[in-house]
């Protein structure tokens, strides 16, 4: 099964993709994570992407489609969760081609519907473990022991450079202008399911599981 998670910054795409990876053995394909890895490694892709990401704009379709193409073969028989990809019509068409070339297809597109004002609080409070990448939130999902990662015990955490209010608003504008317009492309194929992303993480996860089981 291959699914796309769509939603604006902070909608919970990464949180839900990680849950599905754990519960179903599907592979999370996050272009945001791939790009941040490239930036951290100082690779040619990372050098190109760094300033674009820090400005809250979209990296080029060619770069992100190539990143997905390189990783797609690692998705095993349980399939892939596309998190933050596609973000433009061109990327949606590229994904169809990449899947078709491998004899696969897209099963579901899940749109997380959220209140944008609440997202700024979600994003501003977000941090992750510097060692294993586990994701937390100051208010909504703090670690069990203050300052200690639940998963690996590390005491180092990091916050993303694009998680400030000005950049978040720019990212939301990019979402409305370039990503929301791809919903009709999937709607006309009957692939889109809308889930209320303002519910608790567990309730959102339960709804997504029900869609995948239907
Ligand atoms: P990317 O990393 O994809 O960022 P994003 O889409 O802006 O999404 P986020 O990661 O900020 O949010 P999320 O929806 O995953 O929410 P999360 O689960 O973390 O992209 C970053 C940049 O890379 C882009 O701006 C662009 O420059 C570039 N890029 C990436 N892909 C690209 C592409 N395809 N094309 C071009 N450029 C690309 O949750 C947020 C917080 O809320 C967390 O703290 C979490 O714990 C909490 N939370 C989650 N769910 C809930 C809930 N239900 N209730 C309460 N809190 C919750």
Could you name the key traits of this structure?
15% strand, 214 residues, 3-stranded antiparallel β-sheet, 47% helix, binds BIS(adenosine)-5'-pentaphosphate, globular
In words, what does this structure look like?
The chain is of the alpha/beta class. It is built from nine helices and eight strands. The strands form two sheets. A five-stranded parallel beta sheet has the order 2-3-1-4-8, sandwiched between helices. Helix 2 crosses helix 3 (44-54), helix 4 packs parallel to helix 5 (89-101) and helix 6 (116-124) packs across helix 7 (165-179). The radius of gyration is 17 Å and the shape is globular. Residues 7, 9-15, 31-32, 35, 52-53, 56-59, 64, 84-85, 87, 91, 122-123, 126, 135, 137, 140-141, 171, 197, 200-201, 204 line the site of BIS(adenosine)-5'-pentaphosphate.
């Amino acid at each position: 099964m291959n699914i796309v998670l769509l939603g604006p910054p902070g909608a919970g795409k990464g949180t839900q993709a990680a849950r599905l990876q754990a519960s179903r053995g599907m592979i999370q394909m996050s272009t945001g994570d791939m790009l941040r890895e490239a930036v951290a490694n100082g690779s040619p892709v990372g050098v190109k992407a760094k300033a674009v990401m820090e400005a809250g704009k979209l990296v080029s379709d060619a770069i992100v489609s190539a990143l997905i193409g390189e990783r797609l073969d690692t998705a095993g028989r349980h399939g892939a969760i596309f998190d933050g990809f596609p973000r433009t019509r061109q990327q949606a068409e590229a994904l169809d081609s990449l899947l078709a070339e491998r004899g696969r297809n897209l099963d579901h597109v899940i749109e997380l519907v959220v209140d944008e004002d609440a997202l700024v609080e979600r994003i501003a409070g977000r941090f992750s473990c510097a060692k294993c990448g586990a994701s937390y939130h100051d208010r909504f999902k703090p670690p069990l022991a203050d300052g200690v990662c639940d998963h690996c015990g590390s005491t180092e955490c990091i916050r993303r450079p694009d998680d400030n209010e000005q950049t978040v608003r720019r990212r939301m504008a990019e979402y409305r202008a370039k990503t929301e317009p791809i919903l009709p492309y999937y709607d006309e194929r009957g692939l889109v399911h809308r889930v209320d992303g303002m519910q608790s993480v567990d309730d959102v996860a339960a709804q997504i599981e029900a869609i995948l089981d239907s």
